[in-house]
């Protein structure tokens, strides 16, 4: 452990009193990451706000995608109930409800999952970038 | 024909023994690397996402998926298609809301997560009780399914042999290497199961189409015609549990035993309506006569093909959707696999792979279910529709091809019992050993023996129901107890342990009451209303509401370090906030200092 001199390159402009900082042996890690990470750990009001808004973003991403699936699947039984003749409709020899229930849901579920993975990892990258700057 | 069946048995027995042997040797090989409590609990959290996804899917595709889905599609038609959708969709919900934060919480069991988040030992004990209970509720049908399979291919062997065989194999494997051993076994068994259902389905479909479809099968009824399925050949059915059979057309058959409360041993005429047939009765049907079906199942093919017949169906369907979509994330044996991921990102990727692997699998049982409607209607009479996957190959191809295909599906079914029960035994044993006992390897082994033998005893005593229905109820239980605690615990800052306890108790008790009522009514003439078989549409919202209201009323009890815990659960892995609680509790001194001093960056 070493002491970090104040005003290291890339330091955030701030008027807070000087603090003792803990640094890892890993010298390749940029100093500023550690400072903000320590701040996150210490739960300063800034850190609390940043984390809270990050959690909110992740949450609403999940909720939106869940709604897509919920509405798509939730509507199906009702549609079948209201339009019973749908089972007479045939696509490539298979009754339409069977196609809608037996085959299509799986690519849809995977697609939404894939999309979520991209979005969530993107948000995490943004968060890390913001913390590191 | 008699010698043909004997040969099928030999093939199938060989296939099952091969699966058992492969399972044992794979487990034995990886057991040698397992030496610490963390190996046994979470395989040291080093499982890569592809292998983990195969293991998750392997564990998840239980008897309910391998046999049950085909059986339900065969019996209930379009409405049963919601089972595979829900089984898969549950993982999407898990991925969207639970996977990454749960892994980052650093917990090693579900009760440990509850305590880490809400800081209450009481809540921990309550969730321990529910984990053990759900585990047992889920294990019993697995063991019963194993019994059914062995009985199906070797009618002279009683059902308990298959159940005992699976239980012993699983306990031995878990005993040797815990999670470490089970991971490899389960990953292998996913691919085995995929092959064991895909290859036979493909061959059977080719034969079916080659014969000219429905028109090529003697006396068969098209799947969209408003007529009951007809026997393609003379059939003998032995009724093994009391059953109510409904027929829409009059038919002549020969019966020996008890029908409608009177002894018979002659040719009888059954008019339109319901007939009660008692255990042990033998029925002989002639080719071309209409098939009576178990009461409450669709009687003719047209209504079988049509989803949602009436508003009762609407309620059951929505209830099922809720239970399956939200129940998956509350199943202890599913969650325990997520702790084995190295970090939150890997947990998310694992789930994505799982969605792919499950979607790939579920196409096939649906096809098998539809083909069974044409070829093996006699299973509708005995109510043993779960056996469709095993019986279909010999009916479509009564020759060597059928024998080999039948042996392959039998092997796949056995892989299903083995992998799911392994996962369940590991998760229950992990919870028992760390919460009830002291968490040494010895305790884990003791827990495994207990977690395997108690459900085995229950499986032998209780009457087997439809595998998927029992499993459906355990999903409802998971969705009404752990799902609200997990979702609100991860995303809602204001949840308190009092709210969590109240929600779990209310949700759990409601589902248990409906479970008891349906079981009692099953023994005394099926008087219970149908929605009690799947009460999730009511119990899940109630449980959520109770958690929210009680938490709001006890805001003074929000844990003081809530913000820090929430940050750990959600902050990206690169920042290195994960603190693995198993290392803090069971790790060596060196591992502990590493954990305390530096954050491990990846």
TrEMBL record, chain A:
It comes from the Bacteria. Keywords: Membrane, Transmembrane, Transmembrane helix. The chain crosses the membrane at residues 62-83, 95-116. This is DUF485 domain-containing protein. It comes from Actinokineospora auranticolor. The lineage of its organism: Bacteria, Bacillati, Actinomycetota, Actinomycetes, Pseudonocardiales.
Automatic annotation (TrEMBL), chain B:
The lineage of its organism: Bacteria, Bacillati, Actinomycetota, Actinomycetes, Pseudonocardiales. GO terms for biological process: monoatomic ion transport; plasma membrane acetate transport. Belongs to the sodium:solute symporter (SSF) (TC 2.A.21) family. Gene3D superfamilies: Sodium/glucose cotransporter. The chain crosses the membrane at residues 6-28, 53-74, 80-102, 123-140, 160-178, 190-209, 315-340, 352-376, 404-432, 444-462, 468-490, 497-520, 532-550. One of its GO terms (cellular component) is plasma membrane. This is Na+(H+)/acetate symporter ActP. It is a multi-pass membrane protein. It comes from Actinokineospora auranticolor. It is found in: Cell membrane. It comes from the Bacteria. One of its GO terms (molecular function) is acetate transmembrane transporter activity. Its main location: membrane. Keywords: Cell membrane, Ion transport, Membrane, Sodium, Symport, Transmembrane, Transmembrane helix, Transport.
């Amino acid at each position: 452990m070493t002491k970090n001199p104040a005003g290291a390159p890339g330091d955030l402009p701030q008027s807070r009193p000087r603090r003792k900082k803990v640094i890892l042996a890993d010298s390749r890690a940029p100093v500023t990451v550690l400072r903000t990470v320590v701040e996150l750990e210490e739960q300063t009001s800034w850190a609390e706000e940043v984390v809270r808004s990050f959690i909110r973003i992740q949450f609403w991403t999940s909720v939106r995608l869940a709604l897509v699936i919920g509405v798509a699947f939730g509507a199906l039984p009702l549609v079948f109930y209201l339009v019973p003749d749908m089972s007479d409709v045939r696509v490539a020899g298979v009754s339409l409800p069977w196609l809608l229930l037996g085959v299509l849901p799986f690519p849809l579920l995977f697609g939404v999952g894939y999309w979520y993975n991209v979005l969530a990892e993107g948000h995490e990258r943004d968060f890390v970038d913001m913390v590191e700057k | 024909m008699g010698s043909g069946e004997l040969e099928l048995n030999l093939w199938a027995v060989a296939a099952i023994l091969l699966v058992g042997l492969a399972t044992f040797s794979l487990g034995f090989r990886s057991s040698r690397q397992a030496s610490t409590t963390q190996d046994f609990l979470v395989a040291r959290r080093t499982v890569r996402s592809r292998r983990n996804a195969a293991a998750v899917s392997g564990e998840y595709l239980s008897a309910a998926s391998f046999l049950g889905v085909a059986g339900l599609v065969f019996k209930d038609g379009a409405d049963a298609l919601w089972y595979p959708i829900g089984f898969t969709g549950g993982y999407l919900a898990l991925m969207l809301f639970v996977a990454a934060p749960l892994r980052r919480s650093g917990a090693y069991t579900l009760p440990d997560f509850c305590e880490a988040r809400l800081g209450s030992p009481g809540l921990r004990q309550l969730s321990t009780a529910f984990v053990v209970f759900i585990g047992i509720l889920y294990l019993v049908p697995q063991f019963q399914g194993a019994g059914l399979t062995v009985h199906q291919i070797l009618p002279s062997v009683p059902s308990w042999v298959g159940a005992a065989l699976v239980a012993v194999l699983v306990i031995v494997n878990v005993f040797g290497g815990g999670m470490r051993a089970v991971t490899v076994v389960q990953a292998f068994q996913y691919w085995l199961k995929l092959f064991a259902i895909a290859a036979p389905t493909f061959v059977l479909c080719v034969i079916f189409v080659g014969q000219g479809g429905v028109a090529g099968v003697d006396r068969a009824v098209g799947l969209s015609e408003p007529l009951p399925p007809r026997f393609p050949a003379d059939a003998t059915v032995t009724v093994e549990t009391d059953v109510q059979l409904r027929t829409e057309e009059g038919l002549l058959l020969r019966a020996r035993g008890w029908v409608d409360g009177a002894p018979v041993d002659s040719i009888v005429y059954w008019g339109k309506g319901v007939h009660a047939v008692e255990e042990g009765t033998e029925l002989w049907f002639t080719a071309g006569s209409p098939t009576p079906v178990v009461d409450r199942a669709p009687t003719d093919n047209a209504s079988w093909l049509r989803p949602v017949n009436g508003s009762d169906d609407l309620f059951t369907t929505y209830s099922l959707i809720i239970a399956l979509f939200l129940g998956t994330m509350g199943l202890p044996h599913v969650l325990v696999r997520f702790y084995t991921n190295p970090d939150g990102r890997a947990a998310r990727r694992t789930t994505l792979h799982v969605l792919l692997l499950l979607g790939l699998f579920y196409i096939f049982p649906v096809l098998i279910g539809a083909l069974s409607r044409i070829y093996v209607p006699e299973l509708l009479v005995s109510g043993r529709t779960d056996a469709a996957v095993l019986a279909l190959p010999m009916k479509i191809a009564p020759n060597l091809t059928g024998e080999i295909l039948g042996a392959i599906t039998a092997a796949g079914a056995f892989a299903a019992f083995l992998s799911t029960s392994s996962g369940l035994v590991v998760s229950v044993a992990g919870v028992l050993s760390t919460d009830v006992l002291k968490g040494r390897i010895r305790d884990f082994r003791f827990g495994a023996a207990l977690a395997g033998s108690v459900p085995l005893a229950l499986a032998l005593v209780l009457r087997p129901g439809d595998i998927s229905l029992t499993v459906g109820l355990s999903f409802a239980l998971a969705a009404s107890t752990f799902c609200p605690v997990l979702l609100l615990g991860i995303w809602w800052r204001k949840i308190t342990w009092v709210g969590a306890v109240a929600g779990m108790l209310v949700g759990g008790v409601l589902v248990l009451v409906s479970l008891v009522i349906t079981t009692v009514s099953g023994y005394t003439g099926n008087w219970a209303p149908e929605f009690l078989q799947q009460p999730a549409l009511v119990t899940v919202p109630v449980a959520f509401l109770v958690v929210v209201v009680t938490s709001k009323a006890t805001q003074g009890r929000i844990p003081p370090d809530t913000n820090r815990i929430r940050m750990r659960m959600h902050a990206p892995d690169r920042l290195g906030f994960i603190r693995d609680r198993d290392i803090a509790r069971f790790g060596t001194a060196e591992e502990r200092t590493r954990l305390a001093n530096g954050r491990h960056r990846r």
